[in-house]
Amino acid sequence: MADLVILAPATADLIARVAAGMANDLVSTICLATPSPVAVVPAMNQQMYRAQATQHNLQTLATRGLLLWGPDSGSQACGDVGPGRMLDPLTIVDMAAQHFASPVKDLQHLNLMITAGRPVSHWIRCVISPTTALARWASRLPPPQRSGART
């Protein structure tokens, strides 16, 4: 069993499926079946984030006790500026550590599963895609902070 499930990036579609209680893929099935805390880290266009349906879905998740982390605000991939950016991966790690009320360097008692999303069709996408940052967060931490976690 996971200590914490983090949905990052949580698209408007994923948020809607989890809010509706759907279990049509591995991620939404895990969210529906887990007794563990679930943190949702929104990542979408500012207009999608501000949409009434998205706000309703986020409120539904919050009412059910899911943790809402973010979003950040700023420049987006589409060129818009506003809320909807995914939090920086290191910020997500810090929030997870705060959730457990322990310093980030104490990962030994945690079980981590890190996914990089769907397979990429071209190597250059790995280099330029901002979603690969979440999969790289562990390599950006100093070695003492990475040691001990089971992945």
Automatic annotation (TrEMBL):
Gene3D superfamilies in UniProt: Flavin prenyltransferase-like (3.40.50.1950)
SUPFAM superfamilies: Homo-oligomeric flavin-containing Cys decarboxylases, HFCD (SSF52507)
InterPro entries: Flavin_trans-like, Flavoprotein
GO molecular function, a single term: phosphopantothenoylcysteine decarboxylase activity
Domain Flavoprotein: 2-99
GO cellular component, one term: phosphopantothenoylcysteine decarboxylase complex
Name of one Pfam family that matches: Flavoprotein
A Gene Ontology biological process term: coenzyme A biosynthetic process
PANTHER family: HOMO-OLIGOMERIC FLAVIN CONTAINING CYS DECARBOXYLASE FAMILY, PHOSPHOPANTOTHENOYLCYSTEINE DECARBOXYLASE
Official protein name in the record: Bifunctional phosphopantothenoylcysteine decarboxylase/phosphopantothenate synthase
Species of origin: Klebsiella pneumoniae
Lineage: Bacteria, Pseudomonadati, Pseudomonadota, Gammaproteobacteria, Enterobacterales
